[in-house]
Amino acid sequence: MDTSSPTQKKKPNELTSTLTTDYISGFDLISIEGYRQDGRKPDELRHFRVSFNVVSDADGSCYMEHGNCKLLATIYGPYEGESRSNQEQAVITCDFSMTSYCVSERRLRTFGDMKSQKLQMAIQRVFQQAVNTETYPKSQIDIHLKILQSDGNDYCPCVNATTLAFINAGEDEKLFFLFER
C-alpha cells in the first residue's frame, strides 16, 4: 500500500512504474527485463516469412507469417463471372475464414461472425479500389483468406498477403499499392 501523499513528488523510476501499471491496468507492454510479450525487444521488428505457389490450382497464392499471424491467401481469376448487364469492370469477391484453433480463446464460430464479416468487406473494398478492374470487364476475381494462427491484428497481414498473392498471379502491374502499417 502506498503511504506517500499525492502532493509528494515521486522519483522517476516510481513514476514510470506507476504509469505502466496504472495506465494499462496491469497489462505491461514491456516487461521489467525489457521484452515485449512475444519475446521481442522494443526496437525489434516482427519476423516475416513468405512462400509462393502453395496452392497449385489457384492463379496466385501466398503463405505468410507475420509475427505470430500465419495465413494463406489465394487468388482465382479473372474469369468470366455471372452475367451482369452493363458491368464495365471486374467484380472482386472475398471469402475469409479462421481455423478453430487459431486464437487463444476458443470460439464456436470462426466464420460469419461480425469481426470476420467486417474484415471480409474491408479487404473486398480495398482491392476493388486497388486493382485496375476496368481491364477485365464482365469478369470476377475471387480472394480466399484463411487465418491459420492469429495474434489479434489480422487486417494488415491479410492485405499484405493478398497483395503478394496478386503479384504471384501476375496482376502486379494492376495493383496500386502495398499496404504497410
UniProtKB/TrEMBL annotation:
Alphabetical list of InterPro entries matching this protein: ExoRNase_PH_dom1 (IPR001247), PNPase/RNase_PH_dom_sf (IPR027408), Ribosomal_Su5_D2-typ_SF (IPR020568), RNase_PH (IPR050080)
UniProt GO cellular component terms: cytoplasmic exosome (RNase complex); nuclear exosome (RNase complex); nucleolus
SUPFAM superfamilies reported for this sequence: Ribosomal protein S5 domain 2-like
GO biological process: nuclear mRNA surveillance; poly(A)-dependent snoRNA 3'-end processing; rRNA catabolic process; U4 snRNA 3'-end processing
Signal peptide stretch: none
Domain Exoribonuclease phosphorolytic: from-to ranges: 44-170
Single GO MF annotation: RNA binding
Family stated for the protein in its record: Belongs to the RNase PH family.
Name recorded for this polypeptide: Exoribonuclease phosphorolytic domain-containing protein
